[in-house]
Amino acid sequence: MTNLSEWLEKRAGINQIYNVLFLRKIPRGAGWLYTLGFATLFVFILQAVTGTMLALFYVPSPDHAYESVRFIQYVLPFGSLIRGIHRWGSSAMIVLIGLHLVTVFVLGAYKHPREITWVAGV
What we know:
extended
């Protein structure tokens, strides 16, 4: 395992990436607002996973669409849970994106040295 970590460090600089992502100082006064970007990313990944799972069973034709939704909701194990998570996740995504946008502008997180992070987020 040590050889693998040394190999990754030489080629990709994993320790430097880890230090930049996880060991940076959080600005004073940021508090829980500083986590909105991560929360938005988490909900986006959740939407992608649940959307993919739903797409496997949904039939987008006029003849079978309603029946496929009924199958997902009532027959598929945990189908109603997956569909509910996807539905609530879409609303949460809109709220989190709005809060994150406001927080970025209020805290000035788009300024130096975070310009590239801001561009990637946009």
